[in-house]
Specification:
The complex is a heterodimer. By secondary structure, chain A is an alpha/beta fold. Chain A has 2 domains: 1-38; 54-186, 3-Layer(aba) Sandwich (Glutaredoxin), CATH 3.40.30.10. Chain A is built from 5 helices and 7 strands, in the order H-E-E-E-H-E-H-E-H-E-E-H. In chain A, the strands form 2 sheets. Chain A has a 5-stranded mixed sheet. A two-stranded antiparallel sheet of chain A has the order 1-2. Chain A starts with a helix and ends with a helix. Chain B is mostly helical. Chain B has 2 domains: 18-99, Helicase, Ruva Protein, domain 3 (Orthogonal Bundle), CATH 1.10.8; 103-160, no CATH class. In chain B, helix 2 packs across helix 3 and helix 3 crosses helix 4. The termini of chain B are far apart. Helix content of chain B is 66%, strand content 0%. Chain B is built from 6 helices and no strands.
């Protein structure tokens, strides 16, 4: 064995351990800052139009329901938010949705597997961030969207194509670092 | 004692036979279709729990997907069509056996690469063991060997004499 290959064999385990350490550190750090979600799954619908659907309005909310046809030919980007009154992270993201609504960005809500009276109480008590509000009590339309939990948020560009999907609450960081740049790009 | 033993054995076997489709109302009346649905369900990931199949999970979404699988089967879809139905909505991740594509190439290639690397190491180690024996003696060494041999023969002759 030449001295060179001996040296390589000696340093290889240390190099592997060091590379692993760097990898783990980056993954944990990015998880902490919210840039990386190990449970996150890319949507199969990115760059495609939403599935065909029509959902009824949440009764007594004074808002209209909507379907796929209502998402085409809109003047700008819109946000579709799947939520439920029983979902705790939905409470965390609620102020951010209210902010978007105040800024005039259309947020369409879909109440997922929720009792209508509970959804209604949620928006009456906390404020209504939605321009339109439909209900998907069986959760069947949500499956067509590829939803696997609430909250889940989609961004549609002006052509009505899905550009972004986020599973989890829209925290202030997600709003400023992900959603705002996307809204600016697709405005 | 025997009762306890029988009970213990029964408990050991139970998990193997239990299915998450706990409600008989969810099962298809046709036994062949139901077994197809179960086989398919074992290939589909529960998106919520992520390391279980929809057939093994009690999560609400897993039940919804089990019902969809059964609905598609009754509608006359073949296995590939049922899988494609969910693949179109949830992407590669819903398939517990991911398809071969550029994005999954590393995943599929890892066992082959590991095997080849192992073979390479074994071959290298063997070559190193064989290599020294194969080098022929140099002229210098040959002369020295001959010298030693004659010395030995001389001493042997000496003792015999």
């Amino acid at each position: 064995m030449t001295p060179l290959s001996r040296r390589i064999l000696l340093t290889a385990p240390f190099a592997v351990a060091a590379a692993g350490g760097v990898g783990f550190y980056t993954a944990l750090h990015r998880q902490q800052t919210g840039q990386y979600n190990p449970r996150g799954v890319p949507s199969a619908l990115i760059g495609r139009p939403p599935p065909d659907f029509t959902l009824p309005a949440l009764e007594n909310s004074g808002l209209e329901g909507f379907g796929a046809a209502d998402l085409r030919g809109l003047p700008g980007a819109i946000i579709i938010n799947f939520w439920a009154s029983w979902c705790v992270p939905c409470i965390i993201e609620h102020p951010q949705l209210m902010r978007l609504q105040r800024e005039g960005i259309p947020v369409f809500g879909i109440a997922y597997k929720d009792k209508p009276e509970d959804s209604l109480r949620f928006i009456r008590e906390r404020g209504n961030p939605f321009r339109r509000l439909a209900k998907d009590e069986p959760g069947r339309v949500a499956i067509d969207w590829g939803v696997y939990g609430v909250p889940e948020t989609y961004l549609l560009d002006r052509q009505g194509l899905i550009r972004w999907r986020f599973a989890g609450p829209i925290t202030p960081d997600v709003l400023s670092e992900d959603l705002r740049p996307l809204l600016a790009r697709h405005a | 004692m025997t009762h306890a033993l029988v009970l213990a054995l029964a408990l050991l076997v139970t998990p193997l036979t239990a299915f998450a489709v706990s409600s008989p109302a969810d099962m298809l009346p046709d036994a062949a279709q139901e077994s197809r649905a179960r086989a398919l369900g074992k290939e589909l990931r529960c998106m919520v729990c992520q390391n279980q199949s929809i057939e093994d999970s009690e999560v609400g979404l897993a039940r919804d997907l089990r019902l969809i699988v059964r609905e598609r089967i009754t509608a006359g879809d073949n296995d590939a069509q049922v899988k494609e139905f969910l693949h179109a909505r949830y992407g590669d991740f819903v398939l517990l056996r991911p398809p071969f594509a550029w994005s999954t190439a590393i995943l599929w290639a890892t066992p082959v690469v590991a095997l080849l690397a192992g073979l390479g190491l074994i071959l290298a180690a063997r070559r190193r063991m064989v290599a020294p024996a194969a080098t022929p003696l140099s002229e210098e060494e040959r002369r020295r060997l001959a010298e030693l041999e004659t010395q030995v023969l001389d001493t042997k002759d000496g003792t015999r004499a």
